[in-house]
């Protein structure tokens, strides 16, 4: 159990590196072209950067899968409480972000959030359909 917890905590830190990596985000976001000091010192080629992003993406996917396995073991009430707390935290962050924006930026921000919610709902619907289809086969 202790090894699993350490691995889970380590995996949780990797997405931060992916966003901060050179070429990971457009200039002006997460520090522009400069990534973590470790990657900057390595002077990675474009191919190396691409492969590093690929490896970190795979790790992020594995992290989600591992996390989901443990979440599936939680009682429904605790899972619901966690989801509610995460939603409240997200809403608070969105409110803070929105408060920093000008009215026309707020409109674009709201539209962006709506698009993300729509895509998330569409994805959930697809996954539900796919699971039902797989059960029938």
Automatic annotation (TrEMBL):
Disordered: annotated segments: 70-107
Keyword Signal set for record: yes
InterPro entries the UniProt entry points to: Cpx_auxiliary_protein (IPR052211), LTXXQ (IPR012899)
Any Pfam family the entry gives: LTXXQ
Keyword Kinase: no
Basic and acidic residues bias: start-end ranges: 70-94
UniProt GO MF annotations: unfolded protein binding
Signal peptide residue numbers: 1-20
Main location: periplasm
Compartment list: Periplasm
Assigned GO CC terms: outer membrane-bounded periplasmic space
The entry's keywords: Periplasm, Signal
Record family assignment: Belongs to the CpxP/Spy family.
The protein's name in its UniProt record: P pilus assembly/Cpx signaling pathway, periplasmic inhibitor/zinc-resistance associated protein
């Amino acid at each position: 159990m202790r090894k699993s917890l350490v691995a889970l905590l380590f995996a949780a830190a990797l997405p931060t590196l992916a966003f901060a990596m050179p070429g990971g985000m457009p200039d002006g976001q997460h520090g522009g072209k400069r990534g973590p000091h470790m990657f900057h010192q390595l002077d990675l080629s474009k191919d190396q950067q691409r492969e590093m992003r690929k490896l970190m993406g795979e790790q992020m996917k594995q992290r989600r899968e591992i996390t989901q396995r443990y979440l599936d073991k939680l009682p429904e009430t605790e899972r619901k409480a966690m989801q509610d707390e995460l939603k409240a935290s997200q809403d608070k962050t969105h409110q803070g972000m929105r408060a920093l924006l000008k009215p026309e930026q707020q409109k674009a921000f709201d539209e962006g959030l709506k698009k993300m919610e729509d895509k998330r709902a569409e994805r959930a619907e697809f996954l539900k359909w796919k699971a039902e289809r797989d059960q029938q086969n």
